[in-house]
Amino acid sequence: MLILICTDDLERSKDVNPYLLIEVSRILGNFGGICGLFVGFSLISIVEFVYFFTLRLFFVVRDTKEEDTRDKIESRNKITRRAHNNGNIYWREIMPRQVASRY
């Protein structure tokens, strides 16, 4: 396989077949494509993995904090329920009876 890199001198010469000329960007693109085909991923895939795992870590930490606060709230609610006679509310507890004035 013969690859000639395109320069001004080669373009001016009439001895070179124009179908053999290839640009540097095409060589790099083809090389990157072949590497991506055989290796299986590219630089964008690496960035996606980093992004995924940092977000995953963030949400795991946030969920554990929410579970801790939820457990604390539930334990406080259990204590207050026991103190309030199994959660029954009586009307007189909310609004005590006022003493009637005699006129």
From TrEMBL:
<comment type="similarity">
    <text>Belongs to the amiloride-sensitive sodium channel (TC 1.A.6) family.</text>
</comment>
<dbReference type="GO" id="GO:0016020">
    <property type="term" value="C:membrane"/>
</dbReference>
<keyword id="KW-0813">Transport</keyword>
<keyword id="KW-0915">Sodium</keyword>
<keyword id="KW-0406">Ion transport</keyword>
<dbReference type="Pfam" id="PF00858">
    <property type="entry name" value="ASC"/>
</dbReference>
<protein>
    <submittedName>
        <fullName>Uncharacterized protein</fullName>
    </submittedName>
</protein>
<keyword id="KW-0894">Sodium channel</keyword>
<feature type="transmembrane region" description="Helical">
    <location>
        <begin position="27"/>
        <end position="53"/>
    </location>
</feature>
<keyword id="KW-0407">Ion channel</keyword>
<dbReference type="InterPro" id="IPR001873">
    <property type="entry name" value="ENaC"/>
</dbReference>
<dbReference type="GO" id="GO:0005272">
    <property type="term" value="F:sodium channel activity"/>
</dbReference>
<keyword id="KW-0472">Membrane</keyword>
<keyword id="KW-1133">Transmembrane helix</keyword>
<keyword id="KW-0812">Transmembrane</keyword>
<keyword id="KW-0739">Sodium transport</keyword>
